[in-house]
Amino acid sequence: MPAKYNLHSHGPFTFQVGLGETIRHLVERVDYGNRMLMSMPAYSQIAGQLEQQAMVTGIASTDTIEGGDVSDIEAEAVLQDPKEAANNRERRIKNLASAYSFLDEYVTKNSEEPTLPITSNMVKSLHCIVSDGLTDSDYRSGEYRDHPKGIITHVGDDAHGGRYKPPTAHADICTLMTGLEKWAISDEQQNSSPLIRAGLIHYYFERIHPFYDGNGRVGRLLEKAILYHGGYQGWVKGLDRYYLDHIDDYYFAFNHCRKQEKKQPETCNTEFIELALKGMAETIERIHNNASSIASRMMGLAILGDLLRKGQINSRQHELYENIMDYAKGSITKHDLNSERWYNAMYSELSPATKSRDLNGMIKIGLLRKDGSTITAGSLQL
After folding, report:
1. Could you report the per-residue pLDDT of 57-66, keeping only the tens digit for each?
2. Are residues 182 and 150 in the same domain?
3. What is the pTM (predicted TM-score) of this model?
4. Same structural domain for residues 344 and 275?
């Protein structure tokens, strides 16, 4: 049943499912992709690596959505650096990583609950973590908005489906956040897939827009928390890359659903949930492809090690194959190979004949293939 609220500063506000028939197919697609990913033979061995990569990508993406320009490489470097953040740019990255740790603990603590509680304390704690120490905006950590008359908050712009004015009065925002908390654990929500529930909570949180800044980050984190609680792992932290790549669609879907609420309440939220589910499906496919590459590399290194132990290759050839895979992405011209510092360093105290013998020996047994001037790493198979 829809949950309706009459507000002083905004007019009626309704929490409702409002989905069309197309959603069922997308839910099945996400669940199928998730099962295929989890059932990969080597998944348990690489799950931690996949999740770390997904988190780095997700942090860089959500920061860019909010106006930053952090790359995956920079985000990873900041996360690996044990030193305190030196500026707002680094602090935003570390704060998001801390927010993920908070969610992991919160979901574990509430693992026995049928649906994840989205309490005001939890949401405010998450906002405090996301905004901790930042001076690039007026965050007012953990504090719901309370705008006096004449101060108006706008979300979006005319180029992305229109501007939306969320509730402004503190009392109305508190009422709606309490309403969201109740609706999130209602029978209606308990009977729906966590895939749908995650998207709906994300959407309605952004509609309320309770904080002065940082709402986008918190809303997408809430979506992930519900997915974690629903048993989805590994790929979830990488979902924001899809939102970044489809940012115009993201804002258009948000505004379209908002406008459809009065016209077609039975299906008003379909477009935003479709977008979220497509994002989940494509994120799983991207992570699955990445997992396949990692698993293939693990198997390849095992085979390479076996060849080394049997004396079929030497340690230089083992290192050469690895470097061609790592530095040259599996393929390199003979001219470029001879220009690589790592290659010349390997043979700095050896004769040109030894260098040539190593290379030709690898080509002979199929570790490398030569096509004209290009050398390509061969496929390693048992």
Report:
1. 999 999 999 9
2. yes
3. 0.84
4. no
